[in-house]
Amino acid sequence: MSPSTFLAFFFLLVGVSSRNDDSYLLLPRDLAFDSTTRLALQSLRQSPDTPFLYLQSLFPHHSLGEPYWNHTDYGTLALVGSKGGHVLEQINQDRSFVWLSSKGVLSGVMDGHGTAGHFVAEYARHDLLQRFLNATSNDIEAWLHEAFLQTDHAIPDDLAQQGGCTCSLVYQNGERIYFANTGDSQSFLAAALSTGIDEMQVQIMYETRLDKPGHPDEARRLQHAGAQVTPETAEDDARVWATDPTTGHTSGLAMSRVLGDRQHTAVIADPIIQVIDLKAMKEKVLQEYDAYRTQQCQQVTIHADGSIEPCPLAETPEAVHFFVVSATDGVMDFLKPIEIAQTMAGYLYGNQGHPYLGMEDLLWQSTQLWQQHGQYRDDMAIAYAKTVQV
């Protein structure tokens, strides 16, 4: 491996990161701006076996007792959008991360909007991570809710008056998965069932809600708070409107919950939180798989004496894997969660190659779909993480 390729793998996996004695923070590289990342991905695609030892030795996975962090278990990438002008003039307002520690795994994305949206998203990412690092509460659900509100309150007013951001987080604490979502970015839990040689079934077990003004519950809440809400049309999303008291400028926001964005006073930061027990979810997956296989069975054996032998019971899958993905709407506007999950499962548990290549495929696939609808393309960020085996 040449020195340039060696360095490329280092920058791809380390990224802009920080590390202390019991944690590691992985931040994304932007495919449009970072040539070393593109070189690393190209090398991985051309020679998937050769770089493994380099990847394993360079990636700073370190022992915290158990588990041992593995460079294929988690990752994050970004791609700046195309909003007019040269690519070097663009600013990616999306943020993402994966944070590993002895407390658990925290991953997620933020999507900034407005003139200061990228500053708000960066502030929110940093502030939430600091709060998580210093957290002492055992009530994780209550802590997550309070952390969103505290971060929203802490955003400097000069930034929050000019922009805001979504926030979609997934916290893995042993066999429990906590989803906390504000805005129209999304996170989801996927299950990949190994059902035989080169056979895999993938399904979405949970996905966060899109916080939109057109959602019936959100529309009622906004209107009760005195906000003006316009419904979705063929030309535009449903929006909640606000008027700047200083300039008189009126703006419509296509989200009902965000961090920052203080002009829209009826828009709140409170996250929708869902807690999932992986053991219970695995039982559900196996029950649904058994029912599916039984329904698909059409073969009936009729013996000479007229007796009928029913279909055999479904065999238990060889393995059930769970993983989580968070992505901004630049990725998900034209890709469904199941499409993203199927792609990532092929790289995480199949023979497609390193999972970073799966994220790259998804970003370029989204790019092509955006191009079919015009010249504009939104910013993108994606993060994934495997869960513990149950």
From TrEMBL:
SMART domains reported in the protein's UniProt record: PP2Cc
Domain PPM-type phosphatase as annotated: residue spans: 77-390
UniProt xrefs under PROSITE patterns: PPM_2
Secretion signal, residue range per the UniProt entry: 1-18
InterPro entries reported for this sequence: PP2C, PPM-type-like_dom_sf, PPM-type_phosphatase-like_dom
Assigned keywords, A-Z: Signal
GO molecular-function terms, A-Z: protein serine/threonine phosphatase activity
Record keyword Signal present: yes
CDD domains: PP2Cc
Highest taxon listed in the record's lineage: Eukaryota
Name of the protein: PPM-type phosphatase domain-containing protein
Lineage of origin: Eukaryota, Sar, Stramenopiles, Ochrophyta, Bacillariophyta
